[in-house]
Amino acid sequence: MARRSYDQYCGLAHALDVVGERWTLLLVRELMSGPKRYSDLEAALGGIGTSLLANRIKQLQADGVVGRRLLDPPVNAVAYELTTAGRELGRAVVPLALWGARHFLTEEQAAQEEFRAEWALVFFADSLEPAALRGLAVDYDFHIADSIARMHIADGRAEIISGTNESAPDAVLRSDAVTVGAIVGGRLTVLDAVAQGRIGLEGDPGALETLLTLLQTQIESLVGQGDTP
């Protein structure tokens, strides 16, 4: 079936031609943390349906947003990943996600809807400047609600890994979905959440100090962009 188009010579209209269909941006969100197998994407996007997922991937490949490659041994499986254009799209999605958190996330929704730590972390990690990470080699585990994700920082970049890891982290942050939503929505600061006991911290003091600085500085910067008239 041919894709519908707005037929308008406008950057926004053409962007929506590519990403305006249901599930498309959530598929991009899943790939922001790195290559994923088809089965990984299907499990993460519960409810999408296998034929619709295949269609969305195929269209994003045709648009040059998603590519495919073989994972390194011993996995030897086909995986999908964002292209250069796809990673640029991922960065463009960050302000949209913050806008959604600021205006539409409520505490009531947190008890009814699925939440994964990886979803919040990919937006945070993707917005970090390499200069802020220079010289760091550290692993942080985030236990948020019933999910776990690791932020691995090395070589001037932050990588998000879903689930538990065999190696021990340098520090651990524990919280809940409501608190995370309030922080990214600009209704609560990281330091206030720690002071109120809504964030628990464990691990190396130096690593924790670095983590709090990164979180507070970057989130303040991102949230502050929404206050600009």
Automatic annotation (TrEMBL):
Protein name (record): HTH hxlR-type domain-containing protein
Gene3D superfamilies for this protein: SCP2 sterol-binding domain, Winged helix-like DNA-binding domain superfamily/Winged helix DNA-binding domain
Organism, as annotated: Nocardia macrotermitis
InterPro entries xref list: HTH_HxlR (IPR002577), SCP2_sterol-bd_dom_sf (IPR036527), WH-like_DNA-bd_sf (IPR036388), WH_DNA-bd_sf (IPR036390)
Keyword Transcription included in the entry's annotation: yes
Span of domain HTH hxlR-type: 10-108
GO molecular function: DNA binding
Keywords attached to this entry: DNA-binding, Transcription, Transcription regulation
